[in-house]
Amino acid sequence: MSSSRNIYLKMKTLREARDLLSDRFALRPAGRGETVAVTKAAGRILAQPVYARLSSPGFHAAAMDGVAVKAEATFGATEANPKILDTGTRAVFVNTGHIMPANTNAVIMIEDILVIDENRIQIEAPAFPWQHVRRMGEDIVATELLFARHHRITAYCIGALLTGGITEVSVLAKPCLFLLPTGPELVDHRQMPEELAPGRVIESNSHVLGQMAKELGAQYIRHDIVTDNFELISQTVSEAAQDPETDMILIMGGSSSGSEDFARQVIESLGEVHVHGVAMMPGKPVVIGEINGKPAFGIPGYPVSAIMAFEQFVTPLICAMLGRAEPEPEIIHVQPTRKIAGRLGMEQFVRVKLGKVGANIVATPLPRGAGTITSITEAHGIIRIDADKEGIREDDTVSARLLKDRRYIEDTIVAVGSHDNAIDVLADLLRAESSRYSLSSSHVGSMGGLMAVKKGLCHFAGTHLLDTHDGTYNISYIQKFLPDVPVRLVRLAEREQGLIVAPGNPKKLSGITDLARDDVVFVNRQSGSGTRVLLDFHLRGAGVDPAAITGYENEEFTHMAVAVAVLGRAADAGLGIRAAARALDLDFIPVATESYELVIPEAFAESGRIRLLTEMIGSAQFIERLHAMGGYHTQNTGRVVWKSHQ
Amino acid sequence: MSSSRNIYLKMKTLREARDLLSDRFALRPAGRGETVAVTKAAGRILAQPVYARLSSPGFHAAAMDGVAVKAEATFGATEANPKILDTGTRAVFVNTGHIMPANTNAVIMIEDILVIDENRIQIEAPAFPWQHVRRMGEDIVATELLFARHHRITAYCIGALLTGGITEVSVLAKPCLFLLPTGPELVDHRQMPEELAPGRVIESNSHVLGQMAKELGAQYIRHDIVTDNFELISQTVSEAAQDPETDMILIMGGSSSGSEDFARQVIESLGEVHVHGVAMMPGKPVVIGEINGKPAFGIPGYPVSAIMAFEQFVTPLICAMLGRAEPEPEIIHVQPTRKIAGRLGMEQFVRVKLGKVGANIVATPLPRGAGTITSITEAHGIIRIDADKEGIREDDTVSARLLKDRRYIEDTIVAVGSHDNAIDVLADLLRAESSRYSLSSSHVGSMGGLMAVKKGLCHFAGTHLLDTHDGTYNISYIQKFLPDVPVRLVRLAEREQGLIVAPGNPKKLSGITDLARDDVVFVNRQSGSGTRVLLDFHLRGAGVDPAAITGYENEEFTHMAVAVAVLGRAADAGLGIRAAARALDLDFIPVATESYELVIPEAFAESGRIRLLTEMIGSAQFIERLHAMGGYHTQNTGRVVWKSHQ
């Protein structure tokens, strides 16, 4: 191993890599076809044009309930001079769909006739020829083209095909992807353990990409996990490449350049590598090559990288083999809630949460790490930052590709501010009660929440900002920072804050003053967070100098992250809520009880979405679930405790 | 049967009927849930919130290939004063994803180190704590909410669920529809005959609606066809209504008020009918009721009515039971190619073909009969005309609900004009050659085509207009009607026109003069069509008075419709192309050979789509398929025969 080895081939731009892909591989439907029953053919693509075998109607048919007549026999009938027709011979009762009797060419609607007796009817207006008659072949003529080649069969098409006498169709075979997960750290989900051994992870990329392939109309074979062994991977891939049923090979993991990364070597040894490394993030360490004329990929192991590489390079190949255009993403204009850094020379795909606040769709960036699968499952959209851009400013309007329906976005309640597990409970209850609204929360701390309210970027903010002069919560901060925004303050709960420590409290901490001990490592919350304000207040009260606390500069953004740091022994203690300690079976030393409140702009307070939300906060269900989590006091839950502009 | 019976309950407006539906039925997810494997759960809706069981990462993990160090040990390193670290103890080689060794908290990338020897490396910059480390729980913290109740599981979600240690999830059971096709005329497609007996039709609605239900996330049971027998239908429906697995009942057919229409009676006798008849077209004769607390519908038998009734009334119920919003149709603004009549008091759903011509999306109405399944399979969109509107004028801009991707519409080549089977062949070849473009043609005759070119409503028009003064085709008409539009004329083929007659020519016709015989019924083409001009020219030449021809006033819009009229014995003869006669095994008496040409505006002639089209016209494949159809001469096929503005 040496620092001088060639890490990647010359890195390609995304555009170059995609162009190369369409140059190398005939982007046209594969020859293979198969015959399927029409009733099972929805979503498939016709391999051949389909011509009707039967006409529809196959006969002249009554289009209304009534009597069939020869139009010429009715000419001259008027209200003043009605005509009387004999039933059975000159006028025959028919129902919709009946075959027209011989020597008739028009139907008079049942509403327009008067039955005189069993044998006679009277009409007061003439019928014109072919009135209310569906003529033979009106819909489909036998021998005519029903659907051109490469037509995608819809539910509706099933009706036309069966009606045209077609029960089977020849469709393009589903392109078959061979997915090979590699990596010694991987555990198959079918062997899901109670606890994962350190260093192991559940293999999931093959199932994600397999499902993505299925949704595009392809199929996949997932090979069992192979550890990072060159010979074994090579042999497995070689066999797959020989299989005439394999259309594409994806080696998953090991696409980078570490000592256990074999994807490039394997493809090189069996075929040819065209690209190693594309200037995009996530997704950079992708390998694109071919084996036996078939596209072969090294797919990065980080889940978001794998997804991005698949969407950029595998999706277009699948679509081309199915003779269809790439799915066109829906694009909307959004306003970022904060500036987003780019990186010159790299296309960036930034996952964002979206919501409509007032007139604007606002976009809050999610964590950018390619290893963070929740950054894409929680995303409502993706903002693409071009390689020649340094980033996006806060007041730029940019376009985002939608991952959810536009209406879902418009019906999302946007919460920005301090995190509390009670917000997650609200989100769940809301989904249970409403098929329309959902709640999306971004965790930027209490002050961040107030700033979001000020800029009109959220529907409400969760805050717990202690006024260290008078011990009140939130009000003085609102008066100072939001003088011009009418808001109301709704109490969510009082909650216990305290020191989160390892089970059994091994360092025998008794309170805030112990944090200054030499043998204690602390984990802090970010400045601007209510918990940080609370900590500093208590440190001052106890006369402890923050500089004396080891780890005071280690900042986390949520209570759970603090608890995790303690659980993982990165720290001995952190300040957080009891619910977080309880969730991870950690010990808890109470420090204070504080008010956690929602700052709701008056502009939204009476909207349907916020009324529903406040109803939910007042519900017995919600209070029950707070108590189940522990550390919450609910006597004032749901109460409007203050309004800024009475 | 009497004219005075009450045909419908008081007809409801569409709005009233939908409101009644949401009042009567709790539009909330049904209680039933079921457990499914995460790997098979894409598209399903969570019945319960899901909390993570494992953290991810479950340990502090290297985020880069490199060496793991204790950051504090690197402080002070600079280019001028590099630090040397012992490998194995103070610096440990790690690959991405590896567990961080004890007493390390940062990774230095492999690119940034210099290997001195087997035991030592050199660094020239310090690492900061947690640099290039994915900390335990960074992505997912055990116990935290992964997805709220009623979240729809996507491919991406599979990754988060498996990573969070979840292999099974509880999802909402798929609502189950019981579909009962009724009608004595129906034939099951599994007994598809060579020829349908007169009066019989293939049952297809249950398969169309069943597939639509599946695509919404429901499932269905299709009962065998039951003939229109009250007791039998009633007993079958009653049993289904008792079945706890049935969520909804659809009696298909017999929903109107004919003598064999039992849907309303059956629902009335077993439960309650709330609505019979909704002021919408298609879809008017729908029955909405309930049996045993379950929604029960009488679905009209006409295929487009069945689809519209399903979309308006069944879709919202399915979506509500799945806790999701109704799919939101994409809406675009379109310009109709001709005025569209409405009907006061009725909502109208008009199926249209769409295409982008120049800057506008133009909409050409398709046949409006509810029995015409191809009017919805060929549709690109649906224009809704409100009940209080008399119709839409030609220059109104109206909105249409898209049935195809917007890009598909934009890449559609719009042909308006005379119909020729060669146009269908072109459409098929185009789909075979291009994954991008498709061809959509509307048949309004040659003059209609020229008018469409004039108004900028199509990319080209097919015409065969004979100048009866000099025997030339098309040019004089273009000069007269398109003086201001630069166009070129491309020869598609010369084709034979003649009398289409029944096999064996039973009336022993020898030519155009025989059409005046008393025992001969003729079927004509619409005025403005090239074939009509041709007929009139030859009648004049032969000295035949049109008034002497029985059936001269019977107008059809395509060659195939004329052939079908002859096949169905509605007429003894019609003028049309040889290919139409041949397709239906009819006899053909040649009358003339004419030039069928495409009028292409110069504005589009050099566009990618038209170049591709003209390439296709010149191809050997196309010419081969013309010859296979018969009646075409191709020596000038593909030639630009004339340009209007040289």
UniProtKB/TrEMBL annotation, chains A, B:
It holds the Pfam family MoeA_C. Its EC number is 2.10.1.1. It is an enzyme of class 2 (transferase). Pathway: Cofactor biosynthesis; molybdopterin biosynthesis. InterPro entries: MoaB/Mog-like_dom_sf (IPR036425), MoaB/Mog_dom (IPR001453), MoeA-like (IPR038987), MoeA_C_domain_IV (IPR005111), MoeA_C_domain_IV_sf (IPR036688), MoeA_linker/N (IPR005110), MoeA_linker/N_sf (IPR036135), PBP_domain (IPR024370). Residues 178-320 form the MoaB/Mog domain. Catalyzes the insertion of molybdate into adenylated molybdopterin with the concomitant release of AMP. This is Molybdopterin molybdenumtransferase. It comes from Desulfosalsimonas propionicica.
